[in-house]
Fold:
Amino acid sequence: MKQELAQEPGLPGVLSVPRYLQEVYWWAYVHPNAIRVFERQWLVNAILWGNFSKLRDAALQALGPLQGRMLQIACVYGDLTARLADGMSQAASLDVVDIVPAQISNLQRKLAGRSGITLFQRDSASLGFADNSYAGALLFFLLHEQPQTVRRQTLAEALRVTAPGGRVVIADYHCPSRWHPLYYLFRPVLALLEPYALDLWRNDISRWMPENIRFHIESRRTFFGGLYQLVVLVRE
Ligand SMILES: C[S@@+](CC[C@H](N)C(=O)[O-])C[C@H]1O[C@@H](n2cnc3c(N)ncnc32)[C@H](O)[C@@H]1O
Structure:
């Protein structure tokens, strides 16, 4: 496995961590103790109210046959990337990007000994890969962490680098129905710890999708009383 921290010519050598991550998510991804605390499958499952495996498996299934060059945009605690790699055909390869170098090192440690996976330090809002260069891309609980401008750029970049016919699979928060007990209990928690997440409660995700790239929404499903959504885009 190859870990690339250098950028392509014309891009800076090591990218700085965006302000929203440093200010809002320092405790989850940036602080030196973050990985020690959060890199536990049971904990990420608890944070998703017991739905991690269900959402992981649904997202991987939605990507379709894992053939060609696949892209995972942002590292995820737990075994998502290992499961993605397990499902790849022999000829397939996986690139994973993240903006925080410690997250890349952590993923490298988790994937030790596996081949066909390349890790890059990249900003999801400006991936730096060629147009149409991936067979499919996965955004697993990244968009709710981003301010609106960055979220919009991330979606545009995911679609730009995905080749026609390829899927961009998004798993993320969604507004639960009003009878859901978490509608009232979880909202203040999100407002405190993950303030941008409530954007996805208030708006349809299509609000941040690009207008200048051709794609269609192939499917959308909600899970757990509507608290989570799985949206599949197909590049045209
Ligand atoms: C995929 S999201 C959340 C995943 C989920 N909450 C989990 O269990 O890990 C977390 C990752 O997104 C990364 N990230 C956030 N903003 C990014 C950006 N602009 N570009 C690349 N990676 C980013 C963070 O560094 C972090 O590793």
Summary: The chain has a mean pLDDT of 93.
